Amino acid sequence: MVVLKMVTLILSLGMDTLMMSISLGFIKTTGKVRIALTFACAEAVMPLVGLLIGKGVGQLIGDWASLIGGIVLLCVAIWLIFFEDEDDEEEKLERNLVGWTLIITALSISLDELAVGFSIGLIGVPVVLTIILVALQAFLFTIIGLTFGSRLKRHLGEWAEKFAGIVIGLLGLWILVDAIAHLLHR
Fold it and tell me: pTM of whole model > 0.70?
């Protein structure tokens, strides 16, 4: 039963990483390992932060963390779809997806791991092993997503960035609706 819980948890946490990575693959194809390592680190650190904050504070922040993550992804999607100047944007992203921009992107998709960290000790899975597997999953899903996205870009042409925005928007909307439903269910 513990193995099933871990597999379900790890795969469900990896879906947003995979979708974001595919979207990034449409517009950025270099630095895959650097991006994957950053995403893996963020996804490994967030459950630890959640675990340290504790259950009492975690319940309140955890619900809002998913809500904020959904809103951030929707904002990124709106920018990609409506405000991105298609000339030179790929070159700008190549230069700008470093430092704080990369860290903020990684943290925005790892907010669900923060919420999981609040209850990771209560769901009956080994904490250290789970965090290691979450980081490994994030690294692999990021590499797969970036590679798949860059290959799809050839077929989508100039629409790749718009499609990336749509995918990120749908992911953000899904996270937002799920967070609101969770808040209303309480």
Answer: no
